[in-house]
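Memo to structure team: turn this sequence into structure tokens by end of day. - J.P.
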Amino acid sequence: MPDSIQYPGRRSFFKTAGFAGLGATAVLAAGHLNPARADFDTAALPDDPNSIFTAALIAEDLATTFYYNGLVGGVIQDPALAGPGGSAMAVSSSGNVGNVNYLQAALSQEIAHAGLMRSLLGGASAATDPYQTFYFPKGTFDALASFTGMLNALENAFIGAYLAAVRQFAFMASRPDIYYFNKTNTHTFNRDDLSYFAQVSASILGVECEHRVLGRVISNTNPANQLNYESTDGIVTVFHGPNSAVNALLPFLNPSTGPAYSFATAVADQSMVSIPSSGGPPSE
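Reply from structure team:
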């Protein structure tokens, strides 16, 4: 029997207890901003577009690593996925092709989201992303309950993060007296840019909601679409502050959480297990 897993609950994601020395400002590098601005969270430094893009990039890289390892780990042979003896690309007669396809498409979608965030930050390639290794609790990819429990927790965190990003970008766009530079200091984001970033965040949010629900379909948790409204679950900002989404990332950057999983491997080998998805960001 695989070791049991204790995956973080939604609220425990946003606590840094046990991860001393990994404060948000130490984990990620903030972008450029005009400091003379208000913020939703008076206990936090203000977020700016570059810090939101950076947090989102790391979250999408984490999601890429998670879905890839779900498709190649022992859990893939669960009857709800590829079945005993099956694999992501060779589902057995006792498996469920549709459920496997959900995960394969989710992998390609998270890679696409990461690519967008990387381009907004001027990143050269996935090899230059801030983190190349993520840590998951032991057993995450061994059994269906462990895997889908983590999927649900991660997607809830991502949904909350993008909801917060929508509000923050809308707030930025409403303040013509405040300006923001892109990461390379070659462009100043105007109100139209910031409004568009809110729209893109909402577009990605919708896909993360699909992932949450389809994960519940895989685990046969009914009804899978049990919510009237998605929730921020107490997230106020994306990057800075005690109520920020970035705190959700901290356990997955710490070796004490569990085994290490390579982001580079996930990117290099994803084409062997993913299936393509269609569409791009909303038109400006």
